[in-house]
């Protein structure tokens, strides 16, 4: 185990550097200052947001922040290659701030899957899974955006639903009955819940940057920011309301506040750049909050006991269901828009 | 209790969505990229800064971060409506990055008041208080900036002093003698003090963005950034010096470092965009640090015992007194400027 | 002790304000919006990044975050004066966002030195050390960039190596045999390691801003961002691989993940803005990771036992050796560039 991981990691890094030597160079067409703040917001989401969100389980604090950093650092190098191979110019992949944002996006799929697998996988398995998932993601993304010409600016389907169901499939394969008894590892403590709130808040705050980073034109970008901002705000109010409602003593549940408040950002993703008006964005956020809270409360226990899918962080409720909801919202928004012409 | 909060929150969200459906739409005149980094800095202050600053009490960690998120998520939706009603065009409120910054500002008043009330109020009370306070804030702000045509770029008076005294008034009304005996809840622990430093630092770092976000023109914006930066730096040195001086063993007090270091940002707010020169900004910071440390050390205990006002987080010393000081500094700066003509 | 620190701090602040009154005024030539996001990234690194990185020792959590804030708040005021005296126009030092970035840079040297001295110095010693070190740094920086006309955009040598060896020299002078027995203070705990990861991640994420902030032109800035991003990513993979390799049970070491993952940012600093191609940046990151891990594992214990230099946070391995490596990489890059002409 000790040597296997080290050799695999070093080998992968050597392969990546050789491929970069052959294929990758700077792209300096786009002025750096415009997209750089957006990039940094997304970058903080990937490393601080996802990293700390998963720290709520008291036994997996180091695993979540540490492995998150390992997966993300490898994923962003691999993502540029996999996405770049579809867009080569004269045999070269050109790296710009925009392609760095896209590489961070590709990394998000692996981190979402990791959320379902936390506590079940070794670092070796996670490195291989990251490599496979990002490769598949890049092919799927190419298919959706280039061949089908579908619009998915905030990537509800291509990142969130994809990452969630990839992770759930892996969780099903890696299912071991002994895990269900490890109740003590699945608990949170006061301080682990506080650390997780750091992750939640940075994801919540910068989600408008995530959904608007690759929008075309400043008008679409502004709409994506505003729609995501309102979807998240409405989703948060509904999450607090339902969290108190489903608890027997009327108390707020930290796991719901940490996770379901973010579902509005996922669900509004696909149609974030369209002129759906703020109130529709809020409505999408409300539905996402309802779906996510009900998922955590009723679906996750059933999936673990009946379907043998143990979803450690509940990514199905945060990324899976809201991602599908986002796809449906996108179809409706596109249909309504066509009708209005 | 359990159903009351849920029903109230859902009802408020429905009302907000209906009002947004009728009145709110996108404003896309201003290019998004210019103010967006400023907006995100202010956004981080509201959710991470205020949220974690209040975590220093060991028993109220979840309350402070969680309720802070609830209040802010509702406040930013309500703020747009209350501020927007004074500036409607053809019956519509137009949402832009700038109005989102203003909505975050309006939310700050409620969060400051919450700092005085932490541990005394239920979520229902806080939602109603937020609704009332933001409504009053929007009217007061309109009165000050539109009718009196007063300048208050960093809102020392309209946000900080307003929020502090609103909260203190509510704390007076909600006073119960039993609270004074709950000493064990008013203590901090090692880790709760570390979490609070996350809040302090993000407030400290992004305060220049807060004070410059709505300054007119890039020259005034640059001055507001520079003045706030120096006022905070000078205030911090004085806070450390006095913190050691007022302690019997010469030790630094975490509560002073967490709070009084920020008073410089409040006090320089009103005149931040004026050409007062960096050394005056530093002088304002020094006075703010002195006032704030003395307030925490001598005034807060007296207010709790004699006036029956329990100021849980000491917002009077961080926002109240420095806010008034900011108003006085603004008057002096305006007077001197007139003399120099 | 109690009065000494307070009097020294207040006296220094008075001197600074008087000097600012005489010499410092606004510079408003450069539009604020362009560099301001870069400035805020660097600002977060100085206060949150350095502050929390040093919290991993359970007994020094408050010292590290608190003293870090004190040193930085004084250093940024002093840095403007020391750096500005070399560039006065008509007897005035003009403060702009760019000079504020440079002042934050000068502060970094003192914070790096503080990492070697944590637990050994009093606040009075640290204030005096900060004053002396920043003064020396400004002279050295002037010598290197103006007289020698050397290029060091990310300041591998002038900040990182300078700060590390200054701190190690002070650690040697302040060596007391009793310190080596205080093993219990040199331990980390679960939560202190989590707090330190906050520092690590914000340093890691914003290092591209650090290395590109003062690059000339948007093309050089884009290259500095991209090179730093890849150097850090490659360094991180190597650090994880070697961390598992050097541990007897194959486990990851938190101290290595917290520190050695950042060595890539230091080492690529000097040549970050040059067109060295992404694969060379990754190679520099790999070498930096190897050097830093070996330093922590083998050199630091030897330095403490044989050379009587106790490097509390291991700044020699994070800033010293990678800084020298950055200088060597810069010489090679400059030589190769000349050959290619």
Topology:
Three copies of one chain form a homotrimer.
Chain A: H1 2-23, E1 24-26, H2 32-53, H3 61-84, E2 93-95, H4 97-117, H5 123-147, H6 156-173, H7 190-212, H8 218-246, H9 254-259, H10 263-267, H11 278-305, H12 315-340
Parallel strand pairs in A: 1-2
Helix pairs in contact in A: 1-3, 2-3, 2-4, 2-7, 3-4, 3-5, 4-5, 4-6, 5-6, 6-12, 7-8, 8-11, 11-12
Membrane topology (chains A, B, C): Multi-pass membrane protein
Protein name (chains A, B, C): Ammonium transporter Rh type A
Family (chains A, B, C): Belongs to the ammonium transporter (TC 2.A.49) family. Rh subfamily.
Descriptive report:
- Three copies of one chain form a homotrimer.
- Chain A has 341 residues and is mostly helical.
- Chain A is 73% helix and 2% strand.
- Chain A is built from twelve helices and two strands, in the order H-E-H-H-E-H-H-H-H-H-H-H-H-H.
- In chain A, helix 1 runs parallel beside helix 3, helix 4 runs parallel beside helix 6 and helix 8 crosses helix 11.
- Chain A is globular, with a radius of gyration of 20 Å.
- Chains in contact: A-B, A-C, B-C.
- Chains A and B meet through helix 2, helix 7, helix 8 and helix 11 of A and helix 1, strand 1, helix 2, helix 3 and helix 7 of B.
